[in-house]
Automatic annotation (TrEMBL):
Residues 918-929 have a biased composition (Polar residues). It holds the Pfam family Guanylate_cyc. This is Putative transcriptional regulator. Coiled coil: none annotated. Residues 13-126 form the Guanylate cyclase domain.
Length: 945
């Protein structure tokens, strides 16, 4: 310092400057560094000292000055930065980037120097700056009036300076000719993270959060995979926020969606960490060197926007030092060594065992309350809330969008509209059809883009390019936009497979996908799984593959737009028919006893195929599909649904004029008649029975006519015309014998046996059933029902033969439940209840009655010919047990599921094992004291078989 310069006193503004990355610059320039350093000093002395600043210290690349005027100090720094920026340096890499810091405090010089903490505070302000940046404290701002022309001060918020316990509000000098975008100041903030602040509550995911937390703790690279809108980012941020204290060097969030060029990925991460490019050195090397000695967690979000570049940066970061961990979110993995891939599941849609609502419903409740001004849905809407989240497959984004719709719709209305998932969720929003970028846009992201552009010497994005980038915001505003991003990254084969898979309503296995395409699907299927557009679910028998409903709806739109819908859906109908055929065959291709359980997994696929048949495909193919589900509709309490499908197919026939053979129409009308009877529509039942007869006679098929005529008794019984029904049954049976189609008239045999049982002709009924047993056993479609055993059990009950009843009814119940005949199993439960009442076990009888009635009510089943009998037996049991005991036991049974009730029935002790049974007595005089009823009849002997 010159002795002629008088040091200011009182309120003094201290200025510190130095060259950022001076060591690296010296290494780069070698002998050429000295002239650059000298020129730097000359420019600073001319602009800083010449404007009234007292130069206190010059050491290496650093300057320390004192000003008695804060405004003059700011003007000097501005002039110096402009001079440095406009100077003609030997090369662009040789240009020194100087950081400057100012602070104003009260100080008195002594012996040509200042011994004041204000000097140290000024030095820390300068240390927080970046090359080319001018930072100042709030104290300087208060005294800097007026500011240099065209200059403003940008408030950067409160920061804790190294070595100081309090927080200092820092400001950045902004003026023409100065850079504007810089990383966050290099300060010792207590909270070492930049995680985005969430404006909505985090709901659920306790299990997933714990599982992901363990993985992050145990592995250095964890990639969270999932479809768009699955909640990857939200979960990653929530997890990272809870582990900040575990990483001394911070938890840093980087949104790769803001990066529009692969070469900028390293720059984006460096900008978040507060790093600037070093002259002549790749940014990635600078980043790796910085991270090598630090313990920190880097959260890289939306890596699928730049997968290759992210993979390279991650690999270098992890190999450069052992303290860095990376938590990445993406729609596809990096396939890096040591990478742990964790697929985020949809939110749970089923209530927890303790009765607490599922995470999906909890999220919908929370967001609906926000959409409705704080009003939560009414408890009466709970069932519809569950319908909504199940229809949306627990996809968080879809649930958020659905909640927004609840501003104008009730939950029930929304649930009814979700057949058009995209149209309902995206209603009122324009589809931006965005380019492949992720996440919502924010000011911080824009700053990052501008900063990275400036750091590598390129101009900031133009308004036009920013408009393209801002479409990232809109990507999560609609489901259409969310899925479009991923779809655009697919090759032709993968895109076609995605479109064609939309015809399936549920999971499919690999052979099914191969069957659909007629080609090896492994390569395109792998692409779809890797990009999280198809979920692979491993099972012991082989993986299955499914799409979430919103993705399926999008793929279906693309299928129609591509002009492939007719071919793909016709192929699906053919697959459905083939699957129905296989359900009736064993591994050797021969018919097996039909199990309705084999049809349960096909139900949704068959509905999807029927929907196409009724709207754009072949009604004839649809009638064949409904025929394959004939018994399934009624045994699942869905006779009404079966009728509706038939009505829709009739309408399709009228619309297209498609020719349907008489035999196929007769079969459809016959099935319709049975559905109508099960649904309590007796007039419709008779009408379609008559139509079936007319079509069958026109077809000239004796077996078909016998089957149709055998069903004629059902509507007559339902309308109370029992004698006419018996006459019809006898005529049909006699005619079938004459035509040698006895098996096709088996339904008439069973109906006649029921009518005989009803009027007490038990011997004739037993004889008829005994003759029918081999006929039933020879028919795979019917033998699983074990109708002969059920009816023989009813005959035994009427005779009071508890042993025979027990044996026949349990055989019937095991078979019916074993083959999925739930409706008929309810009749058998009622019969076993009567057997229990006859055996003195009144409480078990009441429980079984309650269980059977509850299940039948849930299936909306009509009581049938046994209805009056069950009512009489329950009334008699009530009188014996007493009202209170009967009601308690009946209520217990009503709370049981069907499986639980069947287990109770099968556990009923055989009468021969009762303490008072004499069947196995060693005293011959006590044996056969109650002989089988009517031993002279062969049928009675058959009952016990």
């Amino acid at each position: 310092m010159s002795p002629r310069i008088q040091l200011p006193s009182g309120w003094v503004t201290f200025v510190f400057t130095d060259i950022e990355g001076s060591t690296r610059l010296a290494q780069l320039l070698g002998a050429d560094y000295r002239p650059v350093l000298a020129e730097h000093r000359r420019l600073l002395r001319r602009t800083l000292a010449a404007t009234g600043g007292a130069e206190l210290l010059t050491e290496g690349d650093s300057f320390f000055l004192a000003f008695d005027d804060a405004a003059a100090a700011l003007t000097a720094c501005l002039t110096a930065q402009r001079a440095l920026a406009s100077h003609d340096w030997p090369t662009a890499e040789a240009a020194p980037r100087v950081r400057m810091g100012l602070h104003t405090g009260y100080a008195e010089p002594r012996d040509g120097e200042y011994a004041s903490p204000e000097v140290h505070r000024a030095a820390r302000v300068a240390a927080a700056a970046h090359g080319g940046q001018v930072l100042c404290s709030a104290s300087t701002v208060r005294r800097a009036d007026p500011l240099p022309p065209g200059a403003t001060l940008l408030d950067l918020g409160l920061h804790r300076l190294r070595g100081f316990d309090d927080r200092e509000r820092l400001f950045q000098l902004v003026a023409p000719g100065l850079e504007r975008q810089f990383p966050r100041p290099r300060t010792a903030d207590a909270v070492a993270h930049n995680l985005p602040t969430q404006v909505t509550s985090f709901v659920g995911r306790q299990v997933e959060r714990a599982e992901l937390g363990r993985l992050v703790e145990q592995h250095r690279l964890v990639t969270v995979l999932g479809a768009g809108g699955a909640g990857k980012t939200r979960l990653a941020v929530e997890l990272a926020g809870g582990v900040v204290e575990a990483y001394p060097d911070g938890v840093w969030f980087v949104d790769i969606a803001a990066v529009t060029d692969p070469g900028l990925v390293a720059f984006a991460i460096a900008a978040v960490l507060g790093l600037r490019p070093e002259p002549g050195r790749p940014m990635l090397d600078t980043l790796v060197e910085y991270a090598a000695a630090r313990r920190m967690l880097v959260v890289l979000d939306t890596c699928d926007t730049q997968p290759a570049a992210c993979g390279e940066v991650i690999s270098r970061l992890l190999s450069g030092g052992g303290g860095v961990r990376v938590l990445a979110t993406s729609r596809e993995s990096f396939s890096l060594p040591g990478e742990v891939v964790w697929r985020i599941p949809p939110l749970s849609v089923d209530p927890r065992p303790d009765g607490v609502e599922s995470d999906a419903v909890a999220l919908l409740l929370d967001r609906t309350a926000a959409a409705r001004g704080g009003r939560r849905p009414d408890p009466s809407e709970s069932a519809d809330l569950r319908r909504v989240v199940q229809r949306l497959d627990g996809l968080p984004l879809a649930i958020e969008l659905a909640a927004a719709r609840l501003r104008v719709l009730s939950v029930g209305q929304l649930a009814e509209r979700l057949d058009d998932v995209l149209g309902t969720l995206d209603a009122g929003r324009e589809d931006p059809d965005p380019p492949p970028v992720e996440r919502g846009w924010s000011g911080n992201q824009q700053d990052t883009v501008d900063l990275v552009a400036a750091a590598i010497g390129t101009p900031p994005p133009t308004p036009a390019s920013r408009a393209v980038q801002r479409s990232a915001t809109e990507r999560h505003l609609t489901m259409q936009a969310t899925v479009t991003w991923s779809y655009r990254t697919l090759g032709p084969r993968a895109a076609r497979l995605l479109r064609w898979l939309a015809v399936f309503a549920g999971p499919v296995d690999l052979p099914t996908v191969e069957w659909l395409l007629g080609d090896d699907p492994l390569d395109p299927l792998s692409v779809l799984v890797d990009k999280s557009m198809v979920l692979a679910e491993p099972r012991a028998a082989g993986s299955s593959y499914r799409m979430l409903d919103p993705i399926r709806a999008y793929a279906a739109r693309r299928l129609a737009e591509a002009g492939e819908e007719q071919a793909a859906r016709d192929r699906h109908v053919a697959w459905s028919a083939h699957a129905l055929e296989r359900a009736h065959l064993g591994p050797d291709g021969r018919p097996v006893t039909l199990s309705l359980y084999t049809l349960d997994p096909l139900a949704d696929e068959l509905r999807a195929a029927l929907r196409w048949c009724a709207t754009g495909g072949s009604a004839r193919a649809g009638l064949r599909l409904t025929g394959g589900l004939d018994q399934w509709w009624r045994e699942r309490g869905l006779a009404r649904e079966g009728r509706l499908w038939l009505f829709r197919l009739y309408g399709r026939i009228a619309e297209t004029g498609e020719r349907i053979p008489d035999a196929e129409l007769a079969a459809a009308y016959h099935m319709h008649s049975l559905h109508a009877g099960a649904d309590g529509e007796f007039a419709e039942e008779l009408r379609y029975s008559q139509r079936a007869e007319a079509a069958a006679r026109q077809a000239g098929d004796a077996g078909l006519l016998a089957r149709v005529l055998a069903g004629r008794a059902a509507p007559l019984v339902d309308m109370g015309q029992f004698f006419e029904a018996e006459r019809v049954c006898r005529e049909v049976i006699d005619w079938a014998h004459g035509q040698d189609v006895v098996g096709e008239a088996l339904f008439a045999v069973f109906s006649l046996a029921e009518l005989l049982w009803r009027r007490g002709a038990l011997d004739e009924a037993a004889e008829l059933l005994g003759a029918a047993r081999p006929v039933e056993a020879a028919r795979p479609v019917e033998r699983g029902r074990r109708s002969v055993d059920m009816l023989l059990g009813m005959v035994a009950l009427a005779r009071g033969d508890v042993i025979a009843a027990h044996e026949h009814l349990l055989v019937a119940l095991r078979s019916r439940m074993g083959h999925g005949y739930h409706g008929r199993a309810c009749d058998t439960l009622n019969a076993i209840a009567v057997r229990c009442a006859l055996g003195g076990d009144r409480l078990t009888a009441a429980r079984l009655f309650g269980a059977a009635q509850s299940t039948r009510a849930s299936m909306r089943a009509t009581p049938g010919i046994y209805g009056g009998y069950w009512a009489d037996q329950q009334a008699e049991l009530r009188s014996m047990a007493g009202d209170a005991a009967f009601d308690d036991a009946y209520g217990e049974g009503a709370e049981m599921g069907l499986d639980e009730a069947v287990a109770l029935a099968l556990d009923v002790e055989h009468p021969d094992l009762a303490a008072d049974s004499t069947r196995f007595s060693t005293d011959l005089s006590q044996q056969h004291t109650r002989p089988p009823a009517h031993p002279a009849h062969p049928a009675s002997r058959t009952e016990r078989a």
